């Protein structure tokens, strides 16, 4: 094998290894700067989406959001019992500006899986979903998901 041929073979092998190593979904390989998204977003342009948490249902049961668009997710527990708006993967994927419960700002530091609302409570979550994806939605209260309190979230 000539020197040029060996060099070409090594170069082809290096390109192949690089191509295989980068064969990951964009959500895993791309780092998203959530703080930069939050600070550069015009929150006054937020789209409001309301979700009612009732006894064993979310209404609507399917939520559709556009990526890179600011939203105010308005959650209302219309029942007399506690419910959660739970989706661990969705909360990990979004850039959160703030959350309010019953009109009062609350910390989002521990917001990593769900928002719990007692009967009659309301919450507003301001967020941007930077990348498309599909997520399961459920209520984490005992047996609520088994009784049908589940749904889907799609970021398009």
UniProtKB/TrEMBL annotation:
<feature type="domain" description="EfeO-type cupredoxin-like">
    <location>
        <begin position="38"/>
        <end position="155"/>
    </location>
</feature>
<protein>
    <submittedName>
        <fullName>Cupredoxin domain-containing protein</fullName>
    </submittedName>
</protein>
<dbReference type="InterPro" id="IPR008972">
    <property type="entry name" value="Cupredoxin"/>
</dbReference>
<dbReference type="InterPro" id="IPR050845">
    <property type="entry name" value="Cu-binding_ET"/>
</dbReference>
<keyword id="KW-0186">Copper</keyword>
<feature type="signal peptide">
    <location>
        <begin position="1"/>
        <end position="21"/>
    </location>
</feature>
<keyword id="KW-0732">Signal</keyword>
<dbReference type="InterPro" id="IPR028096">
    <property type="entry name" value="EfeO_Cupredoxin"/>
</dbReference>
<dbReference type="Pfam" id="PF13473">
    <property type="entry name" value="Cupredoxin_1"/>
</dbReference>
<keyword id="KW-0479">Metal-binding</keyword>
